[in-house]
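Q: Sequence in, structure out?
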Amino acid sequence: MSSLQIAASGLTADSMMLSVTANNLANANTNATATTPAYSSESVVMQALPPHQGVGQGVHVTGIVASAAPGPVTYDPASPFANAKGNVVGTNVSMAQQMANMLEASTAYAANVTAFNAAKGIDQRALTI
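A: Exactly. Output:
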């Protein structure tokens, strides 16, 4: 696998992480209703590709998993989202955790762009020899 492909695999994985984080933030206020559960925070599962002759070969997304952590429950019988007991079940999305995830993914994405551009420059210089 070339260095361009390795960096591209990281770009793809980081892009997926940013998309999932954006989806979590967009659904941060999606409470449970009588017919649907509250939104559950999702996270991206990545796995390193097996090394070849001791050299890493990139990463790929193996899945997206929903958190099993329960959301907060508040008593508000006047809410349209309240269940029969008057409780409102909120989402388990942590805004602080999602912002940290976004920072991590955007930093990793920028690092992979830098690696991709460096590899591309090396390849272009090799062609001029």
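The beta strands are 42-48, 59-66, 73-75, 87-89.
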